[in-house]
Amino acid sequence: MYKDIHIGHLILVKWKELDFSIERACNFFKISKTDVENMFSQKSLDTELLLKWSKLLEYDFFRIYSQHLILYSPPSKRTNAESLKSKKLPEFRKNIYTQEIIEFILEQINSDEMSKNEVIEKYKIPKTTLHKWISKYSK
């Protein structure tokens, strides 16, 4: 899991994995070869560009950020009453764990980097959920 996200590099990795031609990206974005190559060196990109890369490479680059938030964002200190009064945007549940997150968490435990209790406390994963993962995915 990426704690320090360099989205341009991650796009380049996926790009190379799929073996796309630079001309295809130039045509898709309607920009020069230099501009495409410059995007690979960018630590962050505009959301519209990131959406286009996601479509071109058929990979959800936004999920990298979502998974980062699930694992590393601090818990909310607002009460439910406060949050209900001020909602302007939709709320998304934080407990949607992808396979990558489950594997990351289990790797933390299996490599002795973190104890089960540390994982539960740090990532706010319910104890029963963690035990289900361990019984289901551990070999």
Automatic annotation (TrEMBL):
Gene3D superfamilies xrefs: Homeodomain-like
InterPro entries assigned to the protein according to its UniProt record, in alphabetical order: Homeodomain-like_sf (IPR009057)
Protein name per the record: Transposase
Lineage: Bacteria, Pseudomonadati, Bacteroidota, Flavobacteriia, Flavobacteriales
